[in-house]
């Protein structure tokens, strides 16, 4: 057995046990599923513990449990437990179902709203009924009977339909309670009616995004920016062409002439540097 509060948990509303419950599974998975089905709630079904009693290794058992989960017989997760002192803790859960369930059923089970499978079965309590039945744990003076929970559940369903969370409902029902509370059901009914949140308004329409557009020339169809298409026609179709830039290169003869001039000027400067300057004649 696992530690108290942990271990296997049987899913509700399972079909009666038969010899063909797991015939759709491979032999190894069918044998493991039949073993899990016969274990009592609270049994340790971890891979390490199962490997001590079953003729399979931990890797094989891990693979088999994953396949049982894919087949709808097993779900593993966490569940929140609220103590009478107000503390909250999350514990690991492993829920096993002899009857294979689809994803929608497991999703409803997780929400606490398991759908009823047949009229002969005991009706499954709704989310509203579960909250009202547990109301006395949060506020003992608001403990309700089963009949009162059934009568008040439709009022609470309206809260959930308008997006209220369980925490919001509990605050609305338990904050600022009078002392003493003479009629719990009447007080709960009054608060469920008077504090019912408004219906959510329509979602604001998103602001229209600026249109993404591009223009084309009416003559040739070439795309371009609006400023490049005055009157809707490009420069080419209007017969306008960009002016031709003059060539940056000089003719060869002019280049040679300029080079000769530069060389002559340099030679003259060198000659002047070698010739000493003439002094003016002295006066008698």
Helix content: 25-40%
- Cα shape: elongated
Largest sheet: 3 strands, mixed
**Cα-based radius of gyration, to the nearest Å:** 45 Å
Roughly what is the average pLDDT, rounded to an integer?
80
Query: What is the helix tally?
Result: 10
Q: Classify the beta-strand content into a percent band.
A: 5-15%
CATH architecture of the domain at 8-112: Orthogonal Bundle
Main sheet: which strands, in order across? 1-3-2
Distance between the termini: 142 Å
Q: Class of the domain at 8-112, according to the CATH hierarchy?
A: Mainly Alpha
Number of E-type strands = 5
Low-confidence stretches: 117-122
CATH topology of the domain at 8-112: Arc Repressor Mutant, subunit A
Structural class by SSE content: mainly alpha
Q: SSE string, helix = H, strand = E?
A: EHHHEEHHHHHHEEH
Q: Can you walk me through this structure?
A:
With 284 residues, this protein is mainly alpha-helical. Among the domains are: 8-112, Arc Repressor Mutant, subunit A (Orthogonal Bundle); 128-194, no CATH class. Helix content is 39%, strand content 9%. The chain has ten helices and five strands; from the N terminus they run E-H-H-H-E-E-H-H-H-H-H-H-E-E-H. The protein has helices spanning 27-38, 47-53, 58-70, 103-111, 127-133, 135-138, 146-161, 166-174, 184-194, 252-274; strands at residues 8-10, 74-82, 88-96, 215-216, 223-224. It has a three-stranded mixed β-sheet. The protein has a two-stranded antiparallel ribbon with strand order 4-5. The longest helix is centred in the C-terminal third of the chain and has 23 residues, at 252-274. The model is unreliable at 117-122 (pLDDT under 50).
